[in-house]
Fold this sequence. Notes:
Helix content: 25-40%
Structural class: alpha/beta
Strand order of the largest sheet: 2-8-7-4-5
Largest sheet: 5 strands, mixed
Strand content: 25-35%
Number of strands: 8
Oligomer: single chain
Bound molecules: cobalt (II) ion
Distance between the termini: 60 Å
Number of helices: 4
Amino acid sequence: MTLLRLLGASALLLAGGFAYADPCQMTIEGNDLMQYNLHEISVPSSCTEIEVTLKHAGRMQAKVMGHDWVLAKTSDVSSIVNAAMGAGFARGYLPEGDQRIIAATKLVGGGESTTVRFSTRMLQEGMSYSFFCTTPGHATVMHGRFLFGDTKRLARAK
Ligand code: CO
C-alpha cells in the first residue's frame, strides 16, 4: 500500500515535470575538457525572460578551466572575445559595460553553477545569435547557435 502510494506520487511528479517544463529556462554544462554539452539553444519568441544556468560539471578551478556563458550577435563574437582577453581573469574575462553583450553569467570553476536572467526585448526573431565562453582560447570550441523564435520558418520564407 505504501509502495503503491509512493509509485503514484512519483508518477504524478514526473507528469508534472513534463507538463510544466518551462521553455524559457535551460541548463547548459561545461566540463574539464573545454566543452559545452549543447551546441544549439532554441527559445520560443513567447518568452519575455530567459533564464540560463551554467553548470561546471568538471573539477578544475576557474583559474585553470573557468567557463562562462555569454550571448551576443554572431557578428560580434570575435571582437567580444578579443576584448575579454584584455579584461583578464580578475574581471571574469568580461569587458565592462560592453553594449554588444546581451547576457553573461559570471565565470565558474568545477562544481560551481551560475544563473543569468535576461529580458528578450533586445532579441530579434531571425537574427543570428551565438553563445560562447570568453575564457581565452575557449570560444573556438565552446560556442553554439542561439535561436530565438521560429528561425527555421523565417529562413525558409526568405
Ligand atoms: Co570555457
